[in-house]
Amino acid sequence: MMNVIVQTVNLTKRYKKQNAIENVNLAIEDGAIYGLLGPNGAGKSTLLKHLAGLLRPTQGQVFLFGEPWQRKHLWQLGTLIEMPSLYGHLTAYENLAVHAHLLGLKKSRISEVLEQVELRDVEKKRVSAFSLGMKQRLGIASALLSHPRLLILDEPTNGLDPAGIREMREMIQQFSRQGITVVVSSHILAEVAQIVTHLGIISKGHLRYQGTLKEFIAHGRQRIELETPQMRQAELLLRPHFPQLVVQDNKLLIPAPSEAAASIVTALTQHNITLTHIDSVQDDLETLFLRLVESDKERVVA
């Protein structure tokens, strides 16, 4: 039986007459890397702020570690929502010392978290001289001070260059190996696909999908893509068997599972049609995400 450490029940936040999120029922398993995806304005940050205790719901409830949300849970919770709150005139070490003092923690913990985020070598450097990626890592170091069981990161790769994004990905994976459950929101879908174990997709304030990444990808469509200099002949041959065949960018796109490739090659060969390329393609995370979000737009128009 799965151990759910984060749960929301019919969580709703209303601003004036509009709901930012509505009847969201979240369930995050212990040890997961949970990716929260959604377009801008979908309600991701609002939802994360409720988990962090920064907002109170209009209705519904948040449960952490099997209990209704309470202030005591802050000791098991690390958060980086929006930009980290840092003092530019202080060093990395001094910034963390301020937070450690407020939390009543020993200073020995500061060196440990700086090591975790690979900032130990620059602990005496003023934060004003830090790159955006270094500031993000320092913000995460602050979130790690209290040995959290749950880490909430809102768009941690926002504004980072490719090297910074890779470093952040590796860091998140390392936290998971250390037994920390990570909830991360992002709009970089290709990056999310490399690190998350579970997904929640929110659109127009509603949770539209929740489950494992593997299950979500399995919902995708498969197709066979082929190229041939005899495109018209190949199309006429195959269309009776695959009525939804599409010609696009000098390729034949055939909605069919990979197992159909062998029979397609045989049919083309028997009719002396030269095949220059054939491949089986599965919808990726970005394609499935956009299809789900676009269906919301169509529903509103209808």
Automatic annotation (TrEMBL):
The keyword Signal does not apply. CDD domains: ABC_BcrA_bacitracin_resist. Residues 6-229 form the ABC transporter domain. GO terms for molecular function: ATP binding; ATP hydrolysis activity. Keywords: ATP-binding, Nucleotide-binding, Transport. InterPro entries: AAA+_ATPase (IPR003593), ABC_transporter-like_ATP-bd (IPR003439), ABC_transporter-like_CS (IPR017871), P-loop_NTPase (IPR027417). Belongs to the ABC transporter superfamily. This is ATP-binding cassette domain-containing protein. It comes from Ktedonosporobacter rubrisoli.
